[in-house]
Dibenzothiophene monooxygenase (Actinoplanes auranticolor), 391 residues
Amino acid sequence: MPTIDSHDAALAAAAEVAAALAPGVIQRDRDGAAAVPVEALAALDSSGLLAITVPAADGGPALGPVTLAEVTRVIAAVDPAIAQVPQAHYLLVDVLAVHGDAAVRARLFGDVLAGRRIGNALAERGGKHAQDLSTRLKDGLLSGRKYYCTGALTAAWIAVSALDGDGRLVLAFVPRAAEGVTVDTDWDVMGQRATISGTTTFTDVPVELVLDYAGAFEVPQQLGARAQLVHAAIEVGIAEGALRDATAYLREKARPSTEAVRAGAATAAGDPHVLHRYGRTATRVRAAAALLREAAAVLEEIGPVPADAQAAARGSLAVAAAKAFASEVAVETASELFAMCGTSSTAARYDLDRHWRNARTHSVHDPLDWKYHHLAAWELAGVQPPNHGQL
């Protein structure tokens, strides 16, 4: 397993992974759940990047949010679906770093350092709200049904949220190959198709590794902000990928419209309206990237355990702004691509619509309106944002 011990080494590894992913990205998008992206995920898992945030005390390089955001952005600009697969993995590494006991950390971080990924099984359907869980851990046995289990299909471990016998929220870590674990490929959505975030069922699965998850959100925390930072980086990556492909198409394939020729434009890239759209779009993409860097720097300064609720709020809101804006910009950029490049760019062989489908699908991961709401409430009235994992 490659040893990554610096920001520059991590970015170099991310660039190598992105280069390996590029040739197959269109086919993976088209295949969706019909073909598990084994080779693409192997390139990620064997890169050393899964361990970049493991604490130094546990044998890792302890690289922070600035590195993680950039690594995610670089990979997402090529394949945001593969970039999303380890999003929960990095969250769970943070959870273990802050709340795991010595035995749990030793067991799981040893595997992470060896390139083994942790998938998630956190979301459920059918309850009154997202945390109205039916999954139970009772007498050491785990039973329940989870949805949107990104990364679980090909993970070494799966982290499962459940209620224990006292009704308290816990996080159980079970081997993917454990008896009673079934991961389906019933992932049928318009975008982020290669994540294969299908349904996972647990039937009386024995659990040895468990930690109190409710306690993580009973104190000021940055777990939610750090998790959302990865989502923000994915959106910035999607926007950058769409802009990159628009640039290439305008330079190499696009023809000017009849109106542009009448106006004196010799090429599509010389159309004054295309120039306006491109300039505006490129500026917004750069602004989204700048907000991402700013948010990552704030989290780096605060650290994984904020000093107080004020610090936690500052980190959460910095990420909320970056995530909300990047989500809007990614959708806009992926749509503007076609306005700039014209009808021929919609040909199925180019698969350029994947950028919009990925952006639109990923952008509704959690409500953007509430992010802006909490930003305004803080600025106008000093109202603390909620202490949960979706901001």
User: Anything to note?
Assistant: The radius of gyration is 21 Å. The mean pLDDT is 95. The beta strands are 118-121, 136-138, 141-146, 157-163, 169-175, 181-183, 200-206, 209-212. DSSP finds 13 helices and eight strands in the chain.
